[in-house]
C-alpha cells in the first residue's frame, strides 16, 4: 500500500423509512488486505446521522480496499422497525459496505440509506 495521502473518509446514515438522520448507529472501519481485515477505526452516528469527525482523518488514507460495517440492528429495533422480539433474527443487523480507494489524496464519502428491509449506498461528496 502507498503512503498516506491527504484524503479522508466520511459517512452518514439516513433512515429512509422515517425520513430522518439515523442517530446512535455504531460503525467500524476495516482495511482489507488479501483475505484478512484489520479494524482501523470506529465511531457512532450523532443526531445528524454523521460521525463527529471523519471516520478516517486526513493523512490516514491509503490506496487499497476498505470495509465499513454499520451495526443497524439495535437502531432498527429502537425505532420499532425490526420487530419487538429480540430473540428472532433481524432481516438487517449488520450492513457491510466494501469499497476501493484509488486516490489517497481524495475525499471519499460513503453514506448508507437505510430502511428495515433494504439499503443502498453511493460515493458522495
Key traits:
single chain, 125 residues, mainly beta, four-stranded mixed β-sheet, four-stranded antiparallel β-sheet, globular
Description:
It is a single chain. By secondary structure, the protein is mainly β. Helix content is 5%, strand content 42%. The chain contains 1 helix and 10 strands, in the order ββββββαββββ. The protein has one helix at residues 73-78, and strands at 8-10, 13-15, 20-21, 26-33, 36-44, 64-71, 94-101, 107-109, 112-115, 118-121. It has a 4-stranded mixed beta sheet, with no helix packed on it. The mean pLDDT is 93.
Structural class: mainly beta
Give average pLDDT, whole number.
93
Largest sheet: 4 strands, mixed
Q: What is the helix content? A: under 10%
Kindly provide the radius of gyration, computed on alpha-carbon positions and rounded to a whole number of angstroms. 15 Å
Number of helices: 1
User: How big a fraction of the residues is strand?
Assistant: 35-45%
Instruction: Report the end-to-end length measured between terminal Cα atoms.
Output: 24 Å
Succession of helices and strands: EEEEEEHEEEE
Give the total of beta strands: 10
Pick out the low-confidence regions: none
The strand order across the widest sheet is: 3-2-9-10
* Overall spatial form: globular
